[in-house]
Amino acid sequence: MTKLTTLLSAALFSATAFAASASFAADKPELTVYTYDSFAADWGPAPKVKEAFEKECACTLTFVASDSAIGAFRKVQLEGADTKADVVLGLDTNITEAARATGLFAEHGVEIPDNLSIPVEWTDKTFLPFDYAYFSFVYDSTKVKDAPGSFEELKAKDDDFKIVIQDPRSSTPGLGLLLWVHSVYGDKAADYWKSIQPNIVTITKGWSEAYGLFLKGEADMVLSYTTSPAYHLIAEEKDQYKAAAFKDGHYAQVEVSAIVKSTKNMELAKQFMAFTLSDTFQNIIPTTNWTYPATKTAAGLPKWFETLHVPSKTLLLDGKAVEEKRKGLIDDWLAALNQ
């Protein structure tokens, strides 16, 4: 074989191999999941979830991030039937009824496992839980020596004691705080908001922005989760970050995912939904999303989770009750804080 013939043969083989590879890639289905920014971040669950699920699905898993879960939901609403989303991940029980009412979501078709460990019974056929946590105010114990142990103690702080919170219109933690205060104060919640207005340094659209401001020293406390100190303990080996334990009890958050009804990848979407309750996915959650997994797995929780505050009293309103109250509570909140 001449040198020219050898080169031509090699070129033909390379072109054929490239064409075959391109054809395979084109035939490979893509599942698109809309979620919030911290889930999709390099340090969040998404990279490990992507790697693990792609080993099982012979597909490409793509995460599209918004600044909050509510932002991801609004994106699907705006896009309607033309949305690229197959699944939305990160809504919680406080917003599921509003999401259900849009008619944009399909039944997940997943059998609820016996080892579910969330703080509420689950029978929902549309929304599937993947983790849970309890809202709390997080502080740096090297800077704050007398952290409040209740909402009343927070109210008693001087005006120069500053907190960062999130907007309940755009953030599930922000909505959680709104419902937490309502659960404690009922019809007097608006009065409480007025009383702590001087302590609120800013109100952000989402959790990531708020927590970033706190870490930069812009506030003494930030609305986050009882599990947030686990990140600092495990990833940074820092033990000064604490979650304030409130005698009032702590409001729970159960995060969920759902299939978009207009998906062209229904079976793949259902496969992903089932995957979110697998041990593989659930074991990723504690040290990437820094929350409790929705199920009890054989691996259990990292040892540092044993040091976290576990509320003796759990507060959580029924989703339908939340939807009935949500607009009125937000309106009262806006008026109280002159937003």
Can you count the beta strands?
Answer: 12
Structural class: alpha/beta
Low-confidence stretches: 1-25
Q: How would a textbook summarize the main sheet?
A: 12 strands, mixed
Number of helices: 13
Shape: globular
Tell me what you see in this structure.
This protein has 339 residues and is an alpha/beta fold. It has 13 helices and twelve strands. Strands 1, 2, 3, 4, 5, 6, 7, 8, 9, 10, 11 and 12 form a twelve-stranded mixed β-sheet that branches.
Outline:
This protein has 339 residues and is an alpha/beta fold. The protein has 13 helices and twelve strands.
Sequence-ordered SSE layout with sheet pairings:
Layout: H1 3-27, E1 30-36, H2 37-40, H3 46-57, E2 60-66, H4 69-79, E3 87-92, H5 96-101, E4 105-106, E5 128-140, H6 151-155, E6 163-166, H7 172-185, H8 189-196, E7 200-204, H9 207-215, E8 221-225, H10 228-235, E9 241-243, E10 250-260, H11 266-275, H12 279-284, E11 292-293, E12 314-315, H13 319-336
Helix pairs in contact: 7-13, 8-13
Q: Key terms for this structure?
A:
single chain, 339 residues, alpha/beta, 12-stranded mixed sheet, 12 strands, 40% helix, 20% strand, globular, disordered N terminus
